[in-house]
Amino acid sequence: MSIEQQIEQIDKRILIARVVDLPGTVVFGLAIYARFYAKGDAFVSFLNTPKIVDSMFVAGLVLMAWSGYRIFKLKRERVKLLKSEE
C-alpha cells in the first residue's frame, strides 16, 4: 500500500472518529444546559432528572475523550507518514 493510500485511509478513520465525537459533544452540551441553565425547567422532561443528567455528563465525556484520543493518535500517525514521504 502506498503512502498516499495510507494517508487516505487515516483521513477516513479520522472522519469516523469525528462523527462518533458529535453525539458525545451534544449529550455533554445538553447535560451542561440541564445542570446550570434549566434550573428544573428544561425543554425535555428527562433533563430535569439529576441521575440522567449525571449519566449524560459521563457518557458525553467518555465519547469525547475516546474520540479525542483516537484523532490525536491518527493525526500523529499521519504526520509521521508525511515526514517519511519527504
Please tell me about this protein's structure:
There is one protein chain. The chain has 86 residues and is mainly alpha-helical. It has one domain. Helices cover 84% and strands 0% of the residues. The protein has two helices and no strands. The protein has helices at 3-38, 50-85. Helix 1 (3-38) packs antiparallel against helix 2 (50-85). The longest helix has 36 residues, at 3-38. The chain starts with a helix and ends with a helix. 9% of the residues are buried. The mean pLDDT is 92.
Instruction: Give the terminus-to-terminus CA distance.
Output: 17 Å
Helix-strand makeup class = mainly alpha
Quick one: biggest sheet? none
- What is the tally of beta strands? 0
Give the mean pLDDT. 92
The run of helices and strands is HH
- Give the C-alpha Rg: 18 Å
Total individual domains: 1
Beta-strand level of the residues, as a percent range? under 5%
Annotation field: number of helices: 2
Helical content stands at over 70%
Shape: rod-shaped
Low-pLDDT sequence parts: none
